Amino acid sequence: MGDRYIEEAWRASAERFDQLKLYVNASFETIPRGDVDYRVNLYSSWILLAYAATEAAFTKLGNASLQTLKVAAGVPGDLPPQLMAAHQKRTLAYLSAQATSERKDSNFQDAISHLDSVRWAEFSRLTAIDRNVWSDVIREWCDRLMVAEAKISWMKAPFGDSSESAASRLDKLVSERNSIAHGEVPENLLGADLMCGWIDDARSFFERCICAMQAHFVERFGTFDCRHLGEVDEKVTLGPSTVAIKKLDVAVSVGDHVCLVPVGDGAPRVGSIISIQSEGVSLQAVEIGRERVAIGLSRQVRANSLFEVL
């Protein structure tokens, strides 16, 4: 039902995070021995770029979410009442500020005219993130879009083997970026490995938000144009997070997201494909029509679930 917009946002953002790590590792090798100023400037660039990648990722997710909602609701009146009210309130507040500005948005008149028309999503501020991407800002944004608290409770939970949470790791990145952007000299200079770990944390935070948003939209609006993974081979039992597919109905790659939709009661869950095997060979991607494929997922597989590729 339009979740492919969100998946496209994920793919573009994941590539940017990966490219940034390549830059960090390559640039680290260029540091002249004993040149502290060079090291400070380089580290500062890493932080600024890591934050920029994170903010850009959430901007893409916001735009993709809006496109998804447009597919689900031709006009704002078709949205759930809470979303329609948020669309009107935020868009009118933006237009009100624009009305007194000497430099109005070029789309000002169109935005007023189409507040409740079929073109509403072109001008809506419903999914805009107007502040730095602190974890609390992202939580508020999720709440605005009616994402259940249970889908984002992981933000405050311990992260991996650390006593820190995913939220605190993101907040430290935002804080470090703000300090550098305001001219402060960073005191603790990370090496390439630790910096790449921080980028991975930001990437992981974003991906989990992607999964939460995808599961939310599937639960609320259905799987109108998701693509069925294929028929599950119930006779083959693999690991708790692996599913055997008799024949693939769609081409898939490692990193794709799959929605596990329960048959009957229960909420849909989204996980990523972490491994693909066919005929005992590990693959990064596999074509449509391939038979006897084992798909490893980042979520445990429950019985009586449909597997929809987003």
Structure notes:
This protein is an alpha+beta fold and 310 residues long. It has 2 domains: 3-221; 227-309, Translation factors (Elongation Factor Tu (Ef-tu), domain 3, Beta Barrel), CATH 2.40.30.10. It is 46% helix and 15% strand. The protein has 7 helices and 10 strands. The strands form 2 sheets. Strands 1, 2, 3, 5, 6, 7, 9 and 10 form an 8-stranded antiparallel β-sheet that branches. A hairpin with a 2-residue loop joins strand 6 (269-278) and strand 7 (281-283). Helix 1 (3-28) runs antiparallel to helix 7 (192-221), helix 2 runs parallel beside helix 7 and helix 6 (166-181) packs across helix 7 (192-221). The longest helix is centred in the N-terminal third of the chain and has 37 residues, at 36-72.
